[in-house]
Amino acid sequence: MNPHEHRSLLRFSLLYFLGFTLLIAAGSWSYTLWMKHRIGVEARTAAALYESQCARLEKLAPQGFECPLEDPDPQHQIGALHRTVIVADTFLLIGGALLSFLLGLTALRPVREATRKMHAFAQAVAHDISTPIASAQLNLEALQKNHADAATQKRLHRIGRSLEQLGTLKTQLHHALGLEKALYDDKRFDLCEHLEQSASVFELVRCRCKKTIVKADPAMMDRVIDNLVSNALKYNRNAQPVDVAISNGMLIVKDRGQGIRHPKRAFERFYREQSSMAGFGLGLHSVRQICDHYGLKIFVESTVNEGTVIRIDLTPVYADKHSLHGKTLPFGKEETP
Question: Cα–Cα distance between 13 and 79 in angstroms, integer?
């Protein structure tokens, strides 16, 4: 059971347990009131009987006689009632907790089954996708050797970048399924060059950046860029341009698409706002994992039916902090492409 299923089981169990607790509390309160009423009636009856019997004995007995009957004490019965209710509630709450856990497991059974099927499907995809990628790369290399004109080479370069993105998707699946551990090999490199290469694959992507030397894993930063750009293009509308830039220490990706209704959930694993859209819900989750590794903060600004701007603070990975173009301004005030 993965952490997400553990959290869901905890939420379901707590919800059921809360319901049981409210029922037990209502039942105990009603039972206690009813029993106190009965004890009160019995106490008043016993007190009246005590007074009448003692008065009769005092009339017949000599002077100085004390009534031998005990004065009824309802507080003793009320104390015993409270102890009984507390013991009964304790056993009921323990039973309610166990029953809540069982009900939570039962309620999550369809979810666990769906997750298991998704996991098996993703494993199959991650395994089978390697063969066509390798075949396409071999054929691409052959075409690049036999076509020297610039226009064809440019198209082949775009195909090569797309194949690299497919390879990235395969790696993301392996990492998400626990089949492969993410390894980081940090180097100094110009992030702007990687941003421009990623943007060159798509005609709708407009890129603006200057030389930006960072110290990180180039493959991991490529994955961040590719996932952000491809996600922006996926949800873009009416062939509107997608702007990418590095400005004031921020990596910025801006689209003019349908926006994100739940920005806080956008980076959850397997989360997709529209199930009809292609993808597994792993791209932005992979972005968050890489950013968490390097301590990069992610800022999301989205308006439904207008678009989304995602900014990532690159300051922690800058190889030379003096190379920052100006001071990093507060979120929302830095230059936007």
Answer: 33
